[in-house]
Amino acid sequence: MGMIERIEEISESAQEAVASADDLSSLEAVRVQFLGRKAELTGILRGIAELEADQRGKVGGLANEVRQQTEELISSRSAELEAAELELSLVADSIDVTLPGSPAAPVGHLHPVTRTRRMIEDVMVGLGYRVVEGPEVELDYYNFTALNHPPDHPARMLQDTFYIEPSPATTGGDRGPRDVLLRTHTSPMQVRAMEASPPPLFIIVPGKTYRRDSDATHSPMFHQVEGLAVGEGVTLADLKGTLLAMLREIFGPDREIRMRPHFFPFTEPSVEFDVSCFRCGGSGSLDGGDRCGLCKAIGWIELGGAGMVDPNVFSFVSDAGYDPDLVSGFAFGFGIERIAMLRHGIGDLRLMFDNDLRMLEQFS
Amino acid sequence: MKVPWSWLSEYCDTGLEPADLAERMAMTGTEVERVVEAGIADAGPFVVGRVVSVEPHPNADRLRVCQVDDGTGTRTIVCGAPNVDAGQAVIVALPGAIMPGGMEIGETELRGVLSSGMICGPDEIGVGERTEGILVLDGDPTPGTPASEVVPIEEVVLELEVTPNRTDCFGIYGVAREAHAITGASLAGEPWSDWDPGTDDECSDVVSVSVEDPADCLRFTARVFTGVQIGDSPAWLQARLIASGQRPINNVVDITNYVMLLTGQPLHAFDLDLVPGGELVVRRSRPGEGMTTLDGIERDLPEGTVLVCDGNGPAAIAGIMGGSVSEVGSTTGSVLLEVATWDGPGILRTSRELGLRSEASSRFEKQLHPALCDRAQAVAARLMVEVCGATEVPGMVDVFEHRDPERTLELRSGSVERVLGMDVPVEEQLEALDRLGFSPRPSPDGIEVTVPPDRHFDVTREIDLVEEVARISDLDTNLPATLPSGEGHTGGLSREQQAQRRTEDAMRESGFDEVVGWSFTSPDRIGALRLGESDQRSHATAISNPLSEEQSVMRTTVLISLLEIASRNLARGIGSVRIFESGRVYLPGGRTGEGLLGGAFPGGDPAPLYEPQVLGALATGEFRPGTWASPSIEAGFFPMKGVLEHLAGDLGLSVDVIPGAEPFLHPGRSGQVTVEGTGIGWIGEIHPLVARAFEVPSAVAFEIRLADLASASSVGDEVFREIPAHPAVERDIAILMPEEVAVSAVASAIGEAGGDLLEDVALFDVYAGEELPDGRRSLAFRLRFRAVDRTLAEEDVKPAWDAIVASIGSLKGELRG
Questions:
Q1: Less Cβ crowding at N or C end of chain A, within 10 Å?
Q2: Is the Cβ of A121 closer than 8 Å to some Cβ of chain B?
């Protein structure tokens, strides 16, 4: 057998040995066997010089090539075996991923009134309104007189009012009773805001309001949102469009609005507004033919009051630039709790201020 | 306002079902609260019967056996009424009839006699008062006639929610006009038309009236009727009153109520013989005066109450209730009928002061027009003659000083469109106003109208006419939905509103639930906080008419709400509570903070109280629940302070807590919260006595004023600093310090001594152990030094280090080996 054939044989058996090495230590043995100092191939390379001249080039070239090939084979096999061994050790190091997270990071909750108030604020900010707030302990002047409720006017009887005693502040004689009270609506901010800024004015006023009434549908403390838009050429149709846009954001794009004429001392004309029922779609009956309980089969849900700002109200802020011959405006108001209760299916208003954590933690 | 359907239909028969008219009215401004079916549901088995004979019952003393002709034959009915008699026309409920209470009439054996049906009493079929007897019909109705043709036994009643401006709709005829206006159905003539009290002055021969102050009494009319025969009112009149919610009393009183219900104008009848000399004076009450009103109650009269007095004293509280002194009763023969117009605000005030509200006062308080007096006198006169057999004394005493002229208004063309954003053709405007009784006529600028008296105080301006047109013009269907054009639409949340939201979100992220507590509380709760007299939080503002003692003063701290809510939840078995509230407190006035959060609200007059927005939080029980791998953390000062630090960090701020006790906090475990040196609130464990008062085992809490936090916040205004180009040198220092020296004092001493190169001082260990000397603890800080322009060498840091060591020495500390 010639030298060349022998080298080829070595190459073949080296390839077989590398392939069959199934761990790093047996691969190391293969390396020593074929590439170590005592290996046959190493011997052949060492003895090249003793070969005849015409054999040296051929044998030397082939032997080097086989050595290099074998080194590469071993190296790549080594990487394979290492990866396999790492994988095995990782699998052995597994955890139970179904255990709960630790340490615990409890999730808190915003009150449904806050969530609803923010939603309304965001919708109205999108329509170009600013958010302002006013005092809850208010002067009679702003709560009644300047909203066109003259002293001893029966309209004052519409709202059962909490009064503060004794009056910590007084106002001038032509500004009506000097009483201090808990505001019965967010409307006093209409006047305050107009006193502070000339038209055009587009604001909403969220906040707490108070009436002397307590049962399943009345709470002595509750929240309202007031809206006021004053500018040139503002119309009742603009009020309808604005309320419709707002209600569709809150209750869904298919909602319709209904406006029923009504009476409020500080708007003229005045309306109450309803939204078409979002459960039955306004039909009054559910898919199975059952009566819709949400709207009591009426198809409409009462939400609040609105109207065109009464010229008498403007007359209280004429110094601030509100001339009913030049500007007109609309105002609206509704309860935040009512929206929250409708959206979340809360039946009893009293739950809103009971603050039972088992209720609050249902609202993220 | 209860409107019997049959009464309404007498003046305006719309041809609609009651529910449909109710819907139309709701869409034009008058809410119909309910449509009630009063009386009998199915009138079919109720017929007119003729009592043919009456025999005693063989087995019962009080019962009688009657033979009754029901139009188809004679039937036997056992009857217990004492007034049943042969020849009477009566109402018979045939077997199968269902009574209003639900009872079904059948053929029943009563003490051995088979009774087939029932003879009805007036109350049993809802047309009169409960009496011992049966209802005996007037006239000679034919047996077998459906009962509903003779008496209104099947009545539908609309219960209207009339808005206070619509005094016209507090009368049936006004409601009929409204129905006419919105449906177009024809309207019957006014029931008071073509009336003349007579010009003879006989009336003033027997009655004289003087009014001290015409401002109290705009008009006083009096008429006299003689030969009055007092008795029960006829069934039709009683039925209408009952359906309208009034109790029949006697024919004269019933007439006054009936006329009020029809015209909206209250009346009052005096027994003329009980009015000495027929002299009446309208005046204010004097100190100490009192009287007994028709409801039998003896009342002290507030000084200044407007009264109608006879020669002996008060005979009626003007516009509210008559007096028993001249009450019309069975012996009355002559009646003085008062129809007056009172000052509305005055009536409202007096009614409130007396705590007495009547059908009359609820109308007068809304201010009626003097012209209504004639209407009421006209209708009453006719009924007094017809029903009571009375004789009219010609003439009328009429004290009427100041007569307002009729009001004419103009509705300019274009005004309706300008307000509504919708055009209503001028012909439709004219028609709407005509139906409403405004007598419109075209004018050069548009339409001129005359306001009818019963709308005089409601419709005073052009805008009010626009509303009248709008509500009749099917607003719901025709009004377009547009958005305001023009300037001024720059919406957005202010910086402080955004800051408020951030703080609320930070609390939520820290695992706290938001609560909304009552703004009011009890003086006891305030008292439980152990606040000193000089502390303004002890001076809670009181409500003069609270619903209860528990809600009688305004809270001065949200801590009260948080403790109450925690206590309630704990009592319900919820073991751990982490809650916060973002709301206001109400402090005596005289100062405000900055912006809306600080209670500086817009408007000409400042707010009466100081109402800062605060954020309060409270935790009790587990602060972090334990898990399979980590122990639970109990609520305590440091976990709570961590939340506060997170909250401030969310606004780009850091908070410091400095010692300083609140009386309601644990004196050794509490402090004042400061931001950039300004106090913004407190934090600490709740004092055990306070916790006990609120039935909370132990708790930790804080309360901060949001305005101060928001104004210090840099969020949105951060200025970029270059990222350091050179490495830092870190050194740890361990110090043995007297325990009473605060960590913050040590850290700031190190900071000052370290100079410009010292970039950061961070505490990483606190240790107090037995092997340390008494009264000392070990503090370990990591110090980071850095220069902006070079890499620091050991010798660069040395001077700073030496200065730091020296500063520690000056605090009586020493380096630990």
A1: N
A2: yes
B531-543 burial by CB neighbour count: b if 16+ within 10 A, else e?
A: beeeeebbebbeb
Nearest CA in chain A to B30: A262
pLDDT 10s digits, B107-134: 888 888 888 888 888 878 777 766 778 8
CA dist., res. B70 & res. B316, Å (int): 49
Q: How far apart are CA B603 and CA B586, in angstroms?
A: 19
The answer to whether residue A326 neighbours chain B at the CB level (below 8 Å) is no
Measure CB to CB from residue B565 to each of A189, A195, A355 and give the nearest one. A355
A114 with B588: Cβ contact below 8 A: no
Task: With cut-offs at 50, 70 and 90, classify the pLDDT of residue A159.
Answer: low
CB distance A114–B514 less than 8 Å? Answer: yes
Closest CA–CA distance from residue B304 to any residue of chain A (Å)? 16
Interface with A, mutate which of B419, B424, B646 (most A CBs under 10 A): B419
Chunked into runs of 10 residues, chain B (817 residues) has average pLDDT values of 92 93 91 80 84 87 87 87 86 84 81 87 75 80 82 84 92 96 94 80 90 94 94 86 87 95 96 92 93 92 92 93 92 94 92 91 94 94 93 92 90 93 93 95 93 93 94 88 88 93 96 97 95 92 93 96 97 95 90 81 90 96 92 94 95 91 93 92 96 95 93 87 91 92 92 93 90 89 93 90 93 86
Distance CA B542, CA B556 (A): 11
Q: Which candidate in B216, B513, B558, B579 is best for mutational testing of the A interface (most A CBs within 10 A)?
A: B513
A194-244, pLDDT tens digit by residue? 999 999 999 999 999 999 988 878 899 999 999 999 999 999 999 999 999
Measure the CA–CA gap between A236 and B483, rounded to whole angstroms: 10
Residues of chain B contacting residue A168, judged by C-beta atoms under 8 Å apart: 541, 588-589, 608-609
Output the DSSP codes for A65-114. Answer: HHHHHHHHHHHHHHHHHHHHHHHHHHHHT---TTSPPSS-----B--HHH
Is the CB of A130 inside 8 Å of chain B's CB atoms?
yes
pLDDT in tens, B732-776: 999 999 998 999 999 999 999 999 999 999 999 999 888 888 889
Mutation target to probe the A interface, by most A beta carbons within 10 A, among B424, B544, B634 is: B544
Residue partners of B720: CB distance under 8 A and separation at least 6: none
- Cβ distance B345 to A157 less than 8 Å, yes or no, reads no
Out of A101, A232, A237, the one facing B486 most closely (by C-beta) is A232
**Hey, what are A175's tokens?**
């500004």
Q: Which two tokens stand for residue B532?
A: 């000193």
Interface membership of A208 toward B (CB under 8 Å): yes
For B6, the token pair is 């049959």
Q: Is the ipTM of this complex over 0.95?
A: no
Secondary structure, 3-state, B117-167 = CEECCCHHHCCCCCCCCCCECCCCCCCCCEHHHCCCCEEEEEEEECCCCCH
A105 lies within 8 A of chain B by CB: yes
Over residues A124-136, the mean pLDDT reads: 95
Q: Give the C-alpha distances (Å, rounded to integers) separating B271 from B228, B335, B360, B587.
A: 10, 5, 19, 58
